[in-house]
Structure formats: C-alpha cells, structure tokens
C-alpha cells in the first residue's frame, strides 16, 4: 500500500460527523404512503434516526416531519415545509440536517443550497457510523467499499473533497474534466478494495475449512438487541457491548464446550436495521458468510425495544437477502428484565413455541440459553451403527463416558456398536482404521 492509498483510506474512513464531535443535528422525515401503512409511522422512524445521529456523535436539536403522497422532486420537502425547516435550523443553530429518506444527489445538493448547512441522508449516516466503528482491516475495507459506491454517483457534491484526494501530478489526462478523473480514481480504488477483500475472504475460507464439521451457531438480530452481551456470557469473549447502534461490525467466533465430547462454535456478528443500505449488505458479504454457513441461527430480539415484531420482520428481511431460504432458527427474546413477562409471552410464545425468554444480564438467562443451544446440538446428532476391531475399542471411550453408546455386541474380535454422534464425530470415527458404518438391519 502506498502512502497516497493510506491517506485516501484514512479520509474515506473518517466520514462527516466524527471529525467534529459535537455537531448539532435537525432530523427531518417525509412520511410517504407505504410508511403510513407500515404500522408505526414516522415518529418511531425519527426516534431511531435520532439514535443513529447520537451514536454518530451528534446532538439532536430539533425534528420535523411532513406527510406527503410523493416526495417533491427537487427538494424532497414541499416549499412551505422547507421554509419551516430553514427557520428551525437557524433557531437551533444546527450544523446539519439528517433526512430519514434516501435523497438523490440532486436533492441533497438543492437542500444544502437552501439550508446552507450540511445535509445527510440516513444511508450516509449509517455509513458514517460503520466507518467510525470498523476495527479490523476487513471491516474497514468493507465500509470503504460501501462508501465509495454510494458516493460515486454523488460525486459532484464532493468536488472539493475529492480534489484534495486526487491531487497527484500526472493523474489528469489532457482534456479530461476533474470529475472524470475523480470517477476513474474511485473506480480504481474500488477495484483494488474488491481484490483485497477477496484475498481476506480466501484466507478465511481456509480457516473455516479446517473446522467446517463442528456445529456452528450464529447470533443474528437487530442492532443493540444484546447479541454481544449473550456471546460474552456464553464464551467470555470480551466483545465490546454497549448501548449504541452497530457497536459490533466484525465477526468473532468462539468455541463453547458442553461436556467432554460436545462442543460447538458460536459466532457474533454485525447487527441489522430496517432499510439497511444495500451497499452495506453487498460489501459485508464476507462477514455475513457466517450467517450462510451456520447450522443454527440464534435470532436475538430486544423484547423491550420499540416494536419487537417490526424488528423481527426487518431482520428476517435482511436474512432473506443474505441467506435465502429457511434455516433452523432459535428465537431469543432478550432484555426480559425491562418488560412485563406476560406481555411479551402472550404476544410471541404462540408464534415461536420454542423461543426462550431471558435477560442476558442475568446468569440464569445465560444458562437457559446454553440449555436451548445444547438441545439443538443434540437434535443435530444422529444415531449410527458401526463395526470395529475389538482392539480399537478405545475409540469409543469418549462416547461411553457421555452415555452415547446405546448398544454394543461382540462377535469374535469384532465389535458392533450403536452410538449417538455429532457429524464431526461421525466423520472422525469413520476415518479411523477398521471402523465401518454397518448397514442398518432391514
Ligand atoms: N437491561 C438489559 N440490558 C441488556 C441486556 N442485554 C444487553 N443489554 C444492553 O443492551 C445494550 C446493547 O447490547 P449489545 O450486546 O452491545 O448488543 P448487540 O446486539 O451486540 O448490538 P450491536 O453490536 O450494536 O448490533 C448494552 O448496553 C447492553 O448492556 C439485558 O438482558 N437487559
Ligand atoms: Mg454487538
């Protein structure tokens, strides 16, 4: 990597807000008809936008909503509302306006002209938080890729910013406009990041290849639901868990030992949100591979959240785009210490009969979860009959000690045993000398 690359990467990773810790933000949202029928409506959406803004380091100083049948083409808000917004910005001394809706490049530009402060949309805000929270090289590259791809069509807005970045002598061809040069530079940078991510994903694949037969459970869920808290409780992983959105961006995997021979892998990963920018889903493909590879998804729900049902649907939607198709899922309603038990039970126990209702802050909650995970692990075990030479009987010792040899019979120097095994054990056992799977009697 050259110095110029490092500078570019550093700048792209910094984003807008984190450069100035105490920005004052006004939130703005237009409720379009689809949103009205979506259940909660704009209030809750703006609440969430506010939490995003706070997580990004801004102070929320005002909010404004409008109901419209369709966005105004040039400024999203109607003329009167826009004037109202400009007044609110002046009154509160706001340094930025954050829109809950996705703005087109032209709309963003026009709004900035009228309001004379920085204008961000929800996607840009989420990208900024991701940029601030990325720790590993993989996460940083994934965020940068998403940012660059989102910014590419918005380049005209970033003229001066990119002018600084491009800068280098000899980067400009005769007769080319600055914009074309910028586009080409960005295109090159994007290609290089894709290549780097491929290399990292390749290395990861080899790592997982070695452990691919161990049962793997992956924590998924809405951001801030408590995934990392549960991961820490079960494995002592020491992952950062805090009351902010997208605290975790990287996948962490730890082994959980159940008994002498049973263990499984547990993975904590990035949280989801409604309308998760598709650029982010695309560029976090490698991290989300953990979701595709899982034998079991552990879907953690914040039972005390705004509207748990709506959060579940949002997570299901993202899951469907990341890993299409049904897969075994354990529903975990977390933060039960903050709500009345009955309320949540009544609402969800019918729909998810096997769900667990726990508090991740309470060791008993962690034990309940561990128990449910073990049940799934045992459910994934199979019963097989093997034959092996009696001199190799020691191979069955671990199974004996955990009561997993169900039947055993000797003929000459051969032993025939019916055992309960995980896939991993089955493969290991059958790879030993002289051990064969017996065809079950018809
Ligand atoms: N009261 C209560 N708080 C909890 C519980 N579980 C987690 N929390 C808190 O909820 C906040 C979010 O927890 P995390 O474990 O970081 O959530 P996460 O799902 O990993 O969130 P992201 O990584 O940001 O997507 C933290 O402040 C936790 O202390 C619980 O059972 N009860
Ligand atoms: Mg987390």
A few lines on this structure:
With 442 residues, the chain is of the alpha/beta class. The protein has helices spanning 3-14, 33-37, 42-55, 79-92, 105-115, 122-133, 137-151, 159-166, 178-211, 227-235, 278-283, 285-293, 308-322, 341-348, 363-379, 397-401, 423-430, and strands at 24-31, 59-67, 96-99, 118-121, 216-221, 252-257, 263-268, 296-302, 329-334, 356-357, 382-389, 405-411, 414-421, 436-437.
Written account of the structure:
The chain is an alpha/beta fold and 442 residues long. Helix content is 46%, strand content 19%. The chain contains 17 helices and 14 strands. The strands form three sheets. The protein has a six-stranded mixed sheet with strand order 6-7-5-8-9-10, sandwiched between helices. It has a four-stranded parallel sheet with strand order 2-1-3-4, sandwiched between helices. The N and C termini lie far apart (64 Å). The model is unreliable at 1-16 and 157-175 (pLDDT under 50). The structure holds guanosine-5'-triphosphate and magnesium ion.
Question: How is this fold's topology laid out?
Answer:
Elements (H helix, E strand, L loop, with lengths): L2 H12 L9 E8 L1 H5 L4 H14 L3 E9 L11 H14 L3 E4 L5 H11 L2 E4 H12 L3 H15 L7 H8 L11 H34 L4 E6 L5 H9 L16 E6 L5 E6 L9 H6 L1 H9 L2 E7 L5 H15 L6 E6 L6 H8 L7 E2 L5 H17 L2 E8 L7 H5 L3 E7 L2 E8 L1 H8 L5 E2 L5
Parallel strand pairs: 1-2, 1-3, 3-4, 5-7, 5-8, 8-9, 9-10
Antiparallel strand pairs: 6-7, 11-13, 11-14, 12-13
Helix pairs in contact: 3-6, 6-7, 7-9, 8-9
């Amino acid at each position: 990597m050259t110095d110029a690359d490092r500078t570019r990467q550093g700048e792209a990773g910094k984003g807008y807000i984190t450069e100035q810790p105490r920005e004052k933000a006004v939130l703005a949202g237009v409720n379009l008809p689809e949103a009205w029928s979506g259940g909660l409506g704009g209030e809750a959406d703006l609440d969430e936008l506010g939490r995003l803004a706070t997580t990004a380091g801004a102070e929320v100083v005002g909010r404004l909503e409008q109901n419209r049948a369709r966005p105004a083409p040039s400024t999203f808000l109607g003329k009167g509302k826009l004037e109202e917004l400009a007044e609110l910005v002046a009154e509160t001394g706001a340094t930025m306006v954050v829109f809950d809706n996705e703005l087109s490049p032209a709309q963003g530009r026009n709004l900035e002209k009228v309001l004379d402060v920085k204008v961000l949309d929800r996607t840009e805000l989420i990208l900024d938080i991701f940029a601030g929270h990325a720790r590993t090289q993989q996460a940083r590259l994934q965020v940068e890729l998403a940012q660059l791809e989102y910014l590419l069509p918005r380049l005209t807005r970033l003229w001066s910013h990119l002018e600084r970045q491009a800068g280098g002598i000899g980067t400009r061809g005769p007769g080319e406009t600055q914009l074309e040069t910028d586009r080409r530079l960005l295109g090159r940078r994007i290609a290089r990041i894709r290549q780097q991510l491929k290399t990292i994903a390749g290395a990861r694949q080899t790592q997982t290849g070695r452990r691919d037969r161990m049962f793997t459970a992956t924590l998924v869920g809405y951001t801030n639901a408590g995934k990392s808290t549960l991961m820490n409780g079960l494995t002592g992983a020491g992952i950062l868990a805090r009351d902010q959105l997208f605290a975790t961006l990287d996948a962490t995997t730890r082994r959980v030992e159940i008994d002498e021979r049973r263990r499984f892998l547990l993975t904590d990963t990035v949280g989801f949100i409604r309308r998760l920018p598709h650029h982010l889903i695309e560029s976090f493909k490698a991290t989300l591979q953990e979701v595709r590879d899982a034998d079991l998804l552990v879907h953690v729900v914040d039972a005390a959240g705004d509207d748990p049902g709506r959060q579940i649907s949002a997570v299901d939607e993202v899951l469907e785009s990341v890993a299409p198709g049904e897969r075994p899922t354990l529903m975990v309603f977390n933060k039960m210490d903050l709500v009345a038990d009955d309320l949540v039970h009544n609402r969800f126990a019918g729909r998810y009969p096997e769900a667990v209702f726990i508090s991740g802050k309470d060791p008993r909650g962690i034990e309940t979860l561990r128990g449910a995970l073990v049940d799934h692990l045992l459910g994934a075990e199979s019963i097989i009959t093997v034959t092996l030479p009696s001199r190799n009987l020691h191979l069955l010792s671990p199974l004996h000690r955990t009561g997993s040899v169900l039947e055993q019979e000797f003929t000459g120097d051969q032993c025939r045993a019916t055992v309960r095994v995980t896939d991993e054990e089955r493969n290991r056992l059958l790879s030993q000398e002289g051990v064969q799977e017996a065809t079950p009697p018809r």
